[in-house]
## 1
Amino acid sequence: MYQAMPASPMYSAEHKAFRATVRRYVDNELLPHVDAWDEAETFPRSVYRSAGELGLLGLGYPEQYGGTDGDLFHEMVMIEELSRTACGGLLASLFSHSIGAAPILVGGSEALKARVLPQILSGEKISALAITEPSGGSDVASLTTRAVRDGDAYIVNGSKTFITSGMRADYLTVAVRTGGPGAGGVSALLIDGDSPGLTRTPLKKMGWWCSDTAQLHFDNVRVPAAHLLGQENRGFDIFMRNFNHERLALAMQAYALARVCLDEASDWAQQRTTFGKQLVQHQVVRHKLVVMATQIEATRAMLEELAQRLERGESPVAQICMLKNFAAQTMQLCADSAVQILGGMGFMRGTKSERIYRDVKVYMIGGGAEEILNDLAARQLGWV
Ligand SMILES: Cc1cc2nc3c(=O)[nH]c(=O)nc-3n(C[C@H](O)[C@H](O)[C@H](O)COP(=O)(O)OP(=O)(O)OC[C@H]3O[C@@H](n4cnc5c(N)ncnc54)[C@H](O)[C@@H]3O)c2cc1C
């Protein structure tokens, strides 16, 4: 694999041992099956349990809820290794709890956390986050799914769309309107997947095939008031904080998938012969590889710098937005160049770059579209 990662002091012996563990898991449990799973547009539920047993789902969560100790560099290592599957759809669904369960940890009552989090982190239950609605996802403060208090419960009505793990999630962390218009009327509710009145419809997609994506409809769904996460009408802050980590994780994936494209393209460029010489002997081809590597190195540097700042307790929101956009652009450039270098083979199913090329757009849209993140960065930098 292209060695973008230097022998950096940020990676300890413990990180290296963790890498070896995840690598074995990917080689033995994922790589032999991942192409078939993507074609089948699903993967077995048992993958959650095997990832849970290895501590991958609980990484960074407190031990008391079944979590395992780890920092953002462990996460980077884990995502790099899992991305060798070239299957963003697997990562999206397998880790949907990284957006769904974090609000439970931040805002759930002790009893709720003690019951729900160990089930999710062990892979026994699946968690999803539902914010986006058919009327729009970028303007989160305008969401319309309504929750009205009725005794010791909320009654929820409305729809959500494009929800990752939406079909099979056991726990849905849902953004609802409990108050007036705008961000100040939004709350976070944990809704059981088997609640009467909840219906789910699967959605077909351009990429991320094996990821489960669904539209949800809530028709007078009764939710215990004890499932409120944080305070009523204060959910917007919980979701905004959640976005920081989601964007960082998407940037890590985009970076790691870009490396997979470079690896496949550079291998191909050395094996393939045209006009009597290896592809890589044609200047235009090797320059493409160097441009890919340059973009990857720049992304890695941004990622590691930001991870260090976050580990120090800083919250560089503008830089996270810029990083997520930059990493997605790196992935797009690398997927495009790799498919070009592979020629017709790059258009064929079975090459990693073909799948990554199909998947790249969601990295530019999900977790905050490029335009929205540029705008947020501009506001954070005080320009508007
Ligand atoms: C595969 C997939 C999985 C997803 N998983 C989840 C999930 O698990 N949970 C969840 O809640 N959501 C999920 N989403 C939804 C995702 O977060 C939204 O698609 C995204 O936030 C954009 O919202 P939208 O699609 O409604 O686009 P819109 O908000 O309608 O925007 C459409 C386009 O207009 C641009 N735009 C909008 N407003 C402006 C503006 N003011 N200035 C300039 N440009 C603007 C946007 O950038 C975008 O390009 C997923 C989406 C996909 C595709």
Note: The first helix runs from residue 13 to 30.
## 2
Amino acid sequence: MRDLQADLAICEAATPGPIQMKPCACGRCNQFLLSITHADGRFDPENAKFIVEAREGWPEAIQRALKAEAEVVTLTNQLYNCGKAVFERDQARQERDNAEDKVDRLEDELRMLQDALNQRYQP
Ligand SMILES: [Zn+2]
């Protein structure tokens, strides 16, 4: 696995972009020069290293970025589902508390009615 911090340093050491492709001036071949190429076809070491390392570094960085993006989607969905479950749990607890309060009120009312009946029909 490549060190992306080191790869980024290689990118930052190279000539700032964009780099242009220029057709060879010979008029006979189908080759290109880059805007960072010297007149004799050579590159400064920073640019040569950038091109060489980019061939392997860019695909790996893209693959890792795509994997990381997919993982972000997965984790975002898990977080959403977790938050939804917590909301539903809290809602169920509130409904249970409301039901318990209602049972308490009905039990109090039943006791009052039983007391009233006992007083009225006591022998
Ligand atoms: Zn040429």
Note: The mean pLDDT is 95.
